[in-house]
Design a protein that fits this description.
With about 600 residues, this protein is α+β, with helices and mostly antiparallel strands. It is about 65% helix and about 10% strand. It has a seven-stranded antiparallel sheet, with no helix packed on it. A hairpin with a 3-residue loop joins strand 11 and strand 12. Helix 1 runs antiparallel to helix 2, helix 2 runs antiparallel to helix 7 and helix 9 runs antiparallel to helix 10.
Length: about 600
């Protein structure tokens, strides 16, 4: 007799590769959404530095704030879907908002016009291109115009700026602190940019948590196909990521920024139509809870009313002052934007607060399990802070200090180099799964804390691998690192990701006190949101002086990135070693949870 645990599928059920047929529609809905999200993410930092000429510090900070909200808003979107909307309506509404956001983002208008202020006098900066390719054009050059003469700008290691005549001789040298890069940009276009990011963030909050919920509803309790079904679903995530990061960058370089960003919007439209026109196949999943009053209109209006709130957070983030040198950690916290204060404040209050509650209302065993969970959550912030340099500092490094030639046959654009991560995940995930299975059968599989520690050491090792490649780059290579050093970093980071990402959510559900498991899931996602924000802050330490988004001295930029990557690599490895030492007490506190 077959049980629900062993039966392959109910008799007469229409299937797709042995799974419920509606999985196809959810797979496609998620794939196209990830196409749009990762395609746009690959372009965002370069779009901010090159088109809007916001500078490295503002661009990486804004990128970190945006990705932080992307991980924070699903807490609200998931709650509203569970209580009122149902997953299906939430996903549809989220898809609409994200599509509008992407199309709005594509409306960047005329590029900002960079100029230099030297001793209070404004000098025009002109841009010359040798081919179309706004995301990463190696032939792009910027000149300062002085009395009708075009002077090439070259930054020096002492912080001064040399202005070179056509014969390469220095016509003028400006001392450090005597010149300032500025840009003439439309306030309206910047406002449109921030509105677009706000719409995408809110839309993601409705979409992301609820599409996965619908996948789970396709399977009865105990259906052994569930894990395999989620594996197929997650393949859609990686497929969309690979296609989006390649094609959006290709369209941006071939046609222009609006085409690349607009393609992300087209992908979201396809995603919306797949979740909306399923021929009745999804009628039984993702519906609103029975007996609840329809509050959908109120929720939709509330979501739109939240756009100005996020817009304000973004503007506050962009205007946050630099921390005063020597002010210490307290001074740094005080200099944070409102978004940073809210994220850090909530995290710093919630972690000890939950532990105090556990001590008062839980058993000793429950307190120890919660303490283990909180320690791992804190180290989780370390990991994702460094891993998420991919969309900010590593993308800028790929643009400025990487020879992106592939065996001399063709070149990748800077955003396309991010594809090394999802491709590595697809290729390595089966091998890592087989490795864990092999070790488990011999009772040698590492504990969860050890896997976290391996991940931290791995992400640090990835940066050190790139730093090694940077040490071999010199004047003969144009201060550019070979593409395969950057690819190697992504491969190592992908291996590290596979040690921590698959076990995180499962670990939280197993270690949490049942009465507050939902709250603990919120803290887990809050930790990732904090990490995304801090990732933007870390990327600011790698900021390089630019003119209209282009560095004026590749040696200076290479040295800056190398110094930053070396520092964060050893911090990550140190954190990993510390977690290795804590693994024994943590394993004891986990009371057999694996």
């Amino acid at each position: 007799m077959q049980t629900a645990e062993s039966a392959p599928a109910p008799r007469g059920e229409k299937t797709w590769f042995g799974h419920p047929a509606p999985l196809f529609w959810l797979f496609g809905t998620e794939m196209w959404e990830r196409f749009g999200y990762y395609g746009m993410r690959a372009l965002l930092t370069l779009y901010l530095t090159k088109h809007f000429v916001l500078g490295d510090r503002a661009s990486t900070g804004l990128y970190g704030g945006y990705t932080a909200l992307v991980y924070l808003t699903p807490l609200v979107g998931g709650l509203l879907a569970d209580q009122y909307l149902g997953s299906k309506r939430a996903v549809r509404f989220g898809a609409i908002l994200m599509a509008i956001g992407y199309f709005t983002l594509a409306f960047g208008g005329q590029a900002a016009k960079p100029y230099q202020l030297i001793d209070g006098k404004r000098y025009e900066v002109v841009v010359e291109k040798f081919r179309d390719g706004p995301t990463s054009d190696p032939g792009e050059t910027r000149y300062l115009v002085d009395g009708g003469q075009k002077l090439k700008m070259q930054g020096n290691e002492d912080g001064s700026l040399s202005l070179l005549a056509a014969d390469g001789k220095e016509a003028r040298r400006i001392a450090a602190g005597k010149f300032t890069e500025q840009a003439e940009r439309s306030d309206l276009l910047v406002a449109i940019l921030l509105i677009a990011l706000s719409l995408i963030s809110i839309g993601n909050g409705f979409f992301k948590p609820n599409i996965s919920t619908m996948v789970g509803e396709l399977y009865a309790q105990g259906d052994r196909r569930r894990d395999a079904g989620f594996t197929i679903f997650y393949m859609g995530i990686n497929t969309g990521s690979i296609l989006g990061q390649f094609l959006c960058a290709f369209f941006a370089d071939s046609i222009g920024w609006p085409a690349g960003l607009g393609l992300a919007g087209v992908a979201m439209v396809i995603s919306f139509f797949m979740i909306s026109n399923h021929g009745g196949r999804l009628d039984t999943v993702g519906n609103a809870p029975e007996g609840t009053k329809d509050r959908s209109l109120l929720i939709y209006l509330g979501a739109l009313a939240a756009v100005p709130v996020l817009y304000f957070l973004f503007t506050n983030l962009m205007s946050a002052p630099k921390p005063v040198e020597g002010s210490g950690f307290v001074g740094y916290l005080l200099s944070l934007s409102l978004m940073g204060k809210l994220l850090f404040g909530t995290f710093l209050v919630s972690v000890p607060g939950i532990l105090v509650w556990s001590a008062l209302y839980g058993s000793r065993k429950e307190l120890e399990m919660m303490l283990a969970a909180m320690v791992l959550i804190v180290f989780n912030v370390f990991f994702w802070t460094l891993f998420e340099q991919a969309g900010s500092s590593l993308t800028l490094f790929a643009d400025r200090n990487t020879d992106r030639s592939v065996f001399g046959l063709f070149s990748l654009s800077a955003p396309q180099t991010q594809n090394f991560n999802p491709i590595s995940i697809v290729l390595l995930a089966p091998l890592m799964s087989a490795l864990w299975g092999f070790l488990a059968r011999r009772n040698l599989e590492p504990s969860i804390p050890v896997k976290f520690a391996i991940a931290l050491v791995g992400v640090g090792a990835g940066f050190l691998f790139l730093v090694l490649g940077a040490s071999l780059a010199g004047a003969d290579t144009g201060y550019k690192v070979g593409l395969w050093w950057l690819a190697g970093l992504y491969v190592i980071h992908s291996l590290a990701e596979l040690c921590i990402s698959p076990v995180g959510l499962s670990m939280i559900t197993k270690l949490s006190i049942a009465r507050i498991v939902g709250l603990m899931m919120g803290v887990w996602f809050l930790s990732i949101s904090v990490a995304q924000f801090v990732a933007g802050v870390v990327a600011q330490f790698a900021s390089v002086e630019t003119v209209g988004g282009q560095v004026t001295n590749l040696k200076v930029s290479l040295d800056t990135y190398t110094a930053t990557f070396t520092t964060i690599a050893w911090i990550s490895i140190g954190a990993g070693v510390l977690l290795f030492l804590l693994a024994i007490p943590l394993k004891k506190w986990m009371h057999g949870v694996k």
